[in-house]
Design a protein that fits this description.
- Two copies of one chain form a homodimer.
- In chain A, a hairpin with a 2-residue loop joins strand 2 and strand 3.
- The first copy, chain A, has a single domain, classed as Arc Repressor Mutant, subunit A (Orthogonal Bundle).
- In chain A, helix 1 packs antiparallel against helix 3.
- The N terminus and C terminus of chain A are likely disordered.
- Helices cover 45% and strands 11% of the residues of chain A.
- Chain A has a three-stranded antiparallel β-sheet.
- The N and C termini of chain A lie far apart (47 Å).
- The interface between A and B is medium-sized, with 25 and 25 residues.
- Chain A binds a DNA duplex (30 and 30 nucleotides) through helix 3.
Chain lengths: 130, 130
DNA sequence: GTCAAACTACGAGGATCCTCGTACAATGAT
DNA sequence: ATCATTGTACGAGGATCCTCGTAGTTTGAC
């Protein structure tokens, strides 16, 4: 009777529990915004280890948790890995267009700075947004 | 030779200096989001004293400064008062649709909570967004 | 000059946040 | 069972943030 079948469960806020202020705060950090952009560009769930971030593993865990607790991403264990996926549909139902708009704004800012912070591969990926 | 004609000048970030992270952070606070919503609903410049906020005057000044330094609002002195106006056009040029989307999200959340935090007059104002 | 109104500056308290290092837990393969 | 992989927990340091009170500045009216 130690631990049944459930491997490791993570708490997520219910859709109705998601607060706009928390979402905006979650997206207001450069590292987290980068994570979200990569997740959006990938269109799939990605493991934490997939990300190459300018912070340590501990800090990475922290940022993923902030995103999860704000309701921006969903996390599920898959073997030793933990898959992260955007809660795009839910967010869109709650705050129509918010995520896409922020993502577009981030792309625009990135392009303006001419930096190499592009999340996907080429900086000319955008065209189809829906 | 103490002070020429300039009454009191305030520093604002140039349009190109505005950072998405700073804007999102500025909007992630409940008090500031409320200020922005009222400003958007008013469609005019409003003095600080016009706002009835759950914080002291000192704190109000602080929040207005955060909004100004993030590039969300523009502040100008007008006699003893200080008029605040949204930098909507500039923000929209930089981050298309961002402000409107956040404003709509805030309205949606407000409506969901059934609270009396409505910025304008009636809670049924939305219809024409552009 | 005097007075009221509107806002700021400064400093402080307390909370939250970002970052890290080290130690630990869970899974899958050997 | 042993080991490597993946990610967590805990605690701590340092920065930033929100809030306030008090004192001070600028403007306009009397």
């Amino acid at each position: 009777m130690t631990t049944p079948a459930s491997p490791r469960l993570l708490e997520h806020p219910a859709r109705e529990e998601i607060r706009l202020e928390a979402v905006l705060h979650a997206l207001s950090d450069a590292v987290r915004l980068r994570i979200v952009r990569e997740l959006a560009a990938a269109r799939t769930e990605l493991s934490c280890s997939h990300f190459v971030l300018p912070v340590t593993k501990s800090t990475t865990t922290h940022h993923f948790r902030v995103l999860r607790e704000a309701g921006v991403i969903r996390q599920d264990y898959r073997g030793t890995a933990k898959l992260n996926g955007l809660r795009g549909a839910e967010l869109d139902a709650l705050f129509p267009g918010l995520l896409d708009t922020v993502l577009a704004a981030a792309d625009a800012q990135s392009a303006r700075e001419g930096a190499g912070e592009a999340p996907g591969a080429s900086p000319v990926t955008a065209t189809a947004s829906g």
